[in-house]
Amino acid sequence: MNLHLLRSFLTVVETQSYSRAAQALFVSQSAVTKAVRELEHQLDLPLLERDADGKSLRGIALTEHGRAVFEHARAIFALARAASEDVRDRVELRQGHLRLGASTTVAAYWLPDMLAEFSRRHPALQVGLIVGNTDEISRELVDCRIDLGYVEGEVSDARIAATLWRTEPLRLVAAAGAAARMSAATLAQATWLLREPGSGTRQAAQAWLQAQALTPARVIEIGSNEAIARAVAAGAGLALLPDTVVADLLAMGRLRTVAPPGQARAASRPLYRLELRNRPRAPALRAFLALDTQPRRRKPD
After folding, report:
1. What are this entry's molecular-function GO terms (predicted)?
2. CB under 8 Å, gap of 24 or more: what pairs does 47-53 form?
3. Which domain holds residue 30?
């Protein structure tokens, strides 16, 4: 069905006049008359009652078929108006959703300030944040369940564009009563607390251990950096954790920093911002990225 012809027919019925319809559509009256005739021809149905000479009756009377087509036309163009208004509201950030995904440390320490500021600037937008490890956030992005991801580990999926967001220091920590410096042998004999496979913190810790040629005697896997930090404070072993995670416990004297052996470098890990390649940025996402030029972390209380 030709929507141009349908709009002409709808306007004629709504205005009850070919001339008024022509004025509303900014075309000639003959063009409107021709459009209505062409629609009837295409549908093979009479839409308007006409006299014996084929002229439309005064008042634009509809046939039974015409009433049905008119109701369909009114619904179609009402939906088109609603769609146009919805799109305009989204472009002007008067409605819409922003769906983010982040690994646990980024979600807890780096994003809260940005989310709060974004909500203040755009109160009409709904914001959602999914928290998971690097592999989980990558899958959410590929499945289009989130618009943007922030992770702590490297991503090899060719469908994802990973941008280095910042570099975060890691700190080797032990319980408060531990020695301030440990030999490589002591570190190797200790129990190490590590995140689960797929975590960026796990990747960074394993890379650091390999660089020091250290193979821990025992490993305990825990799926939360905060839980690892508290387990270390309770004397469960050693861990390599982000500064942001251990800052509070260090300040309270429940953890202590352990100096790496010899000339070992201090550890760090990259944080990445993830987007799906070739996916256009929606207005809400562009507005959020405008705040993302200087990422800030939550300051410890």
Report:
1. DNA-binding transcription factor activity; transcription cis-regulatory region binding
2. 47/9
3. 3-91
